[in-house]
User: What shape does this take?
Amino acid sequence: MKINADAGRCVGAGMCALTAPAVFDQSDDDGTVVVLDPEPPEALRAAAEQAVRLCPSGALSITP
Amino acid sequence: MTEAIPRRETRETLPITRERPFDPPDELGRWREEATVRRMTYADGHEGWVVTGYAAARAILADPRFSNRPELLHSPFPNRPIRREDLERMPPGFFIRMDPPEHTRYRKLLTGQFTVRRMKLLEPRIAEIVADHLDAMERHGPPVDLVPTFALPIPSLVICELLGVPYGDRERFQRDSATLLNLETPLDDAQAALDDLFAYLHELVLRKSTEQGDDLLSGLISAGELTDREIAGMGLLLLIAGHETTANMLGLGTFALLCDPAQLTVMRDDPGSVENAVEELMRYLSVVHLGPIRAALEDVEIDGRLIRAGESVLLSLPLVNRDPERFADPTVLDLARSAQGHLGFGHGVHQCLGQQLARAEMRIAFPALLRRFPGLRLAVPPEEVPMRAAMAIYGVHRLPVAW
Assistant: This one.
């Protein structure tokens, strides 16, 4: 699983950092998405997928 | 495929009268059974739409073909027509009423201040503010009105400290924002309240330009990217949004819990469930109950209905968050469920900037209140609690409680 994040689309709502804090953080500068673990272990798949679903700006995706 | 509009759908305005305090108007539920995207007449006679389905609302909020610019919107509220002269006086920097890329420019200057991590750092101070207010309630003794003693001052003080707005000035800005959010306020009075609030924040920003502090407004001033009027407009937006919304969640949420002792026990006694519990209260109560509204910039088909360019669309969040297609047993308050994905904070580029702050405040305040006063109860019969039916943010005007 590979995490793709488009910081240009991101609106800094923080849903990803809230939902999957082992995978996502937010920049201190403008709050946009920072991927902590671009290829997270399978155990984090459910949380990562939920973060993708909840993202308000459509900035996240997962490639299998 | 688009359907012809049934005749009976036309010339009907937004139902706002509720039969029960926590449930949206029954008439709106009947509308959803007819169509999740349905015709509705706006106050100026415009034939627009109301959306009551979750999938449709989420799609519209995420779609850049729907605009939030006020000059394109029609108002569903008879006392709140959108007047050109008011638009010209709208504060600069009021980015909730802008589309990208203008919206993006302002929002990005703030998002770094409202991250999950920053809000976590505020938690000890929020807990302290909550404890101070509980102490004061205890000293006063029962009965008290929970709105001015707890629900309103906690988020109000938190946002003041974050922005750098002197809390001692609260009488002025709380009065102005209450006037502004009351949809029965005559338009000229609402505009006067907005002007006064802007003047207050503009004076504050000018004062801060010479005496900087360690706060959000001072940070925007020293960043030097915005005019003092833009900073005042942003401050105005954050000040209103930062206290009215959470205040009403705390007041209405406590009322809902007091009416449902089993759920109250979950919130009070199970610290592991507080995160779900807060999301469920957001879903169940949907305090932003008369909007948001968007205008189509081009023809868009949603749920089989063709929304034409220029038509307004009101998204009824209480209905959307109780869509049986999305949430099982939607009319039941169940703090144990996973209500994630609710649209109580909106969706798309305008999704609530302060949502992580609101979550922190609610996760701390609800359990702290219920643990301090395990015998908390209503001091009046539930039907005597005055509801904020005509306010932009739903809630209780007063909540008399004893313990």
Q: What stands out?
A: The mean pLDDT of chain B is 94. Residues 228-258 of chain B form the longest helix (31 residues). The radius of gyration of chain B is 21 Å. Chain B has 15 helices and ten strands.
